[in-house]
Specification:
This protein is α+β, with helices and mostly antiparallel strands. The chain has two domains: 143 residues, Beta-Lactamase; 168 residues, Reverse transcriptase/Diguanylate cyclase domain (Alpha-Beta Plaits, 2-Layer Sandwich). Helix content is 41%, strand content 23%. The protein is built from eleven helices and eleven strands. The chain has a six-stranded antiparallel sheet with strand order 2-1-6-5-4-3. A five-stranded mixed sheet has the order 8-9-7-10-11, with helices on both faces. A hairpin with a 4-residue loop joins strand 4 and strand 5. Helix 7 crosses helix 8 and helix 8 packs across helix 9. InterPro entries: Diguanylate_Cyclase, GGDEF_dom, Nucleotide_cyclase, PAS, PAS-assoc_C, PAS-like_dom_sf, PAS_fold, Rev_trsase/Diguanyl_cyclase.
């Protein structure tokens, strides 16, 4: 019996001095171990939580289940609604893993923690405790988030790239068709940009693309509007809650802003200025494309028509039908 108690005491002391922040709940959800590393992570002394169910105060500003509580309650199905990421690989055995932003009220503010929780059973298979361990991976998460932003942002102009444009278009399409609100799209091309590049060089071309991105963004004034670099010298604008007439008005505003900027294009002559060809399409009361791809193809066809019409103009699907 003494040997068994000795092993038990050793296990507790080992848990208390683990370098990994760890706490243990008994089968009723009361804290029985809150180790030194957990004290350092949260700023909460073991004496303040041992014997209580207030372990949540170390990680959240309002009472809510920790992962260990979900193990006791067999509540794995709640993880997606409570945690940023569910990483569980063996949920059938009530071994849960998750990641979450936690607000450590006393010491560190908002931190991103990787959390693991699993049950401890006695010889008869009865639950006697749950162990939860935590790792602060805030630095890795912030680096990952920055990479994800960069992956969706055009590195030259700083506006969304094609990948993010596609995501926004799909999301706005679902909203528009689900609520029967209009949705418009502009496809924009810089006229004779090759002549500009060939004459002034690619550094000047990059500066020009950044300037055009600024001008287009300035004319898409609502927070819900999305201006993206679609590729090369082509831009695209998503205009939620906007019908075709509204899209044409925005397109003309963009064309006028570029005209007023008076950006030289000496590749076409000493007095030539950059102009824009714009195609507009919409999902609205008069236009019913059946998918976001069809909406995009419609705007692209209108853009092609604008180029074929001599450039420096705005065209819509209705102008194609008239032709």
């Amino acid at each position: 019996m003494k040997a068994k108690k000795h092993h038990s005491d050793f296990a507790v002391r080992l848990m208390e001095h683990l370098v990994v922040p760890t706490f243990v709940l008994d089968q009723t959800g009361h804290v029985i171990i809150w180790n030194k590393s957990c004290e350092r992570l949260t700023g909460i002394a073991a004496a303040d939580v041992i014997g209580t169910k207030r372990h949540w105060t170390g990680f959240y500003t309002e009472e809510r289940p920790c992962l260990a509580d979900l193990v006791i309650a067999h509540g794995g199905s709640q993880i997606p609604s409570l945690y940023t990421v569910d990483c569980s690989t063996d949920p059938d055995r009530d071994i849960f893993s998750a990641e979450n932003w936690c607000h450590l009220p006393i010491v560190a503010g908002l931190r991103y923690l990787a959390i693991d929780a699993g049950p401890i059973h006695d010889e008869d298979g009865k639950l006697i405790a749950v162990v939860e361990t935590l790792r602060d991976i805030t630095v890795q998460k912030e680096a990952q988030d920055k990479l994800e932003v960069l992956a969706r942002q055009d590195s030259l102009t700083g506006i969304p790239n094609r990948r993010l444009f596609d995501e926004y278009l799909e999301a706005e399409w679902q909203i528009a068709t689900g609520t029967n609100h209009p949705l418009a799209l502009l496809m924009i091309d810089i006229d004779h940009f090759k002549a500009y590049n060939d004459t002034l060089g690619h550094l000047a071309g990059d500066h020009c693309l950044k300037r055009i991105a600024e001008l287009i963004s300035a004319q898409t004034r609502r927070e819900c509007d999305v201006c993206a670099r679609y590729g090369g010298e082509e831009f695209a604008v998503i205009l939620p809650r906007t019908d075709l007439a509204g899209a044409v008005a925005v397109a003309k505003r963009i064309a006028r802003a570029v005209s007023l900027a008076r950006i030289r294009n000496p590749g076409l002559g000493p007095t030539s200025k950059l102009t824009m060809s714009i195609g507009a399409s919409a999902y609205d009361a008069d236009n019913r494309p059946i998918s976001p791809d069809e909406l995009l193809r419609s705007a692209d066809a209108a853009l092609y028509a604008a180029k074929q019409s001599g450039r420096a103009c705005v065209r819509t699907p209705s102008s194609l039908r008239a032709a």
